[in-house]
Amino acid sequence: MQRVNKAACLLLALGVLLATGCKHEAKGYWKDTRRYYREYLNTPAKLDLEDKGEVAPAEARLAEGFAGIDIQLRALERALENSDRRPDTAWAKQMFQRFPWISGLAAVDSEGHVMAQQPEAPMKPLDFSPLLKEDTKQNMRALRSYVQDTPMGPEVYVGVPVYSGTDFRGLVIAHFDIRALLPYSSRPADLMIAAPGQVMWPGRFDAQATPIASTDWGSVVTKDVYGSVSNANGEFYWVSRYLGNLPLVFAVPEAGSFPEKPEQLAILKQAAALGSANTPNEPVTEIQPAYPELDESEGSILTKPAPQASDDQKVKEEAIR
Fold it and tell me: CA end-to-end span of the chain, whole Å?
């Protein structure tokens, strides 16, 4: 209050000087007035880059663990929603360049028949049919996601519905192994990743000994977006992030002691190889929209038949099954 009164007195003095014709002195007082105004009344904002605020240790570890992964997932969502171009070969190449961690791309029609896919003969047995089911809690044109548990690890699917006017034509789908995203985490060994009904990445922990495996995430995430869960061994701090309509849960230990399985971390050395084998060397940072119509033209992977798998690949697929 004292500082404000001081500035007010200066303003009053300035008015008196102007009224008496003391222009030269008034000019000096005007400079002082502006300085006091900026210093006391309209102080410029200052950003303290050294102030990290009050963050709990578990919150900091969780942020370090999942932030890089979340950035990649958000970018994939935007690319699928906003690409505004026919999903042809050029589009697929750009997607593989921008997201080297995805396993593949596919297009299915409204009946679930695969019209085309890259790579032409995927190693995992893929099931696109759950994406055809509409979620009544979301817009019918919104992204749809789900996780498939395969013998070679969990596969996450993200599909964007394709319409011609009001007619549902099918889905353009990107799919990936969640473990291919671990190189983007600063603390992959401390991080656990789950979805309703399954643990997708256990980190260094024995998943069944943690509350992450025993929690009904389908119910929990409808009430909260972050929090703590515990069992007899201790407590985990978690946060949920949606990929389309699929809630993904990221968690780190907060208290207690949990049994570990360090052999699970061996996959970290090979995590990058779980992405697409078609990844070009040159990076692409932006997908340019082309704004064409989705029609029957040659080159659209919605209408181009998928190549048949080779005999060797069929043997591999049978072995997986």
Answer: 78
